[in-house]
Amino acid sequence: MTYQLHYWPTIQGRGEFVRLALEEAGAAYVDVARGDPDDGGGERALMAHMAEGDHPPFAPPYLVDGDLVIGQTANILLHLGLRHGLAPRAEGGRLWVNQLQLTIADLVAEAHDVHHPVGMGLYYEDQKEEAARRAQEFRAQRMKKYLGWFETVLERAPKGAEGRQWLTGEALTYADLSLFQAVEGLRYAFPHAMKRLEPRLTRVIAVRDAVAERPNIAAYLKSERRIPFSTEGIFRAYPELDPR
Hints:
This protein has about 240 residues and is an alpha+beta fold. The protein has helices at about 15-25, 45, 75-85, 90-115, 130-155, 175-190, 190-195, 200-215, 215-220, and strands at about 5, 30, 60-65, 70. The protein has a four-stranded mixed beta sheet with strand order 2-1-3-4, covered by helices on one side.
């Protein structure tokens, strides 16, 4: 069965965490809003399930899997993780990977709020002064706290069978894929802050590098399916928010 991923067609955003899982799994999927409107794609199709059904998603991304319409990034990944071997089968392991993913979601939300600290309905240019104050705290404290926690998780995890140091210690999970995306996004938005932090994040960066080497992920990153970072997404590169 082919999955239908519904997300905005021109940005990575939260949908990228789902795309990475689908690509790693080699799952058949359609990125609906990037399709031809004449073939049932486009942004109008993106909104279709948000106005119907007993369990409408609040916002993209959401995934259609047969009769299931699943919203919220972590919830989608919880579903895909069990289906495609990207999470442990035991309940405790699945909950731990979900906890890791939810923590990444918190980090992503804080990264977004750096450039929109006052309101979602305002342009960045309308809140630049507040954004500069928020960015200072994010660079100096929050990035270090989040990424340092993941470094600790990796330090305490046993090595997997492949000799890799994954977050669960046993095998790659969707949380490792999401950590890769978080690191990539922070490198784009805060290159100078990340350059200062990375010497203390050797295990986190090792996961990032190991994910990038996965055959399916490497092929995806080189393909047109991978949308570039931009100042329209969650991670935005504004030089004034990341001074040297």
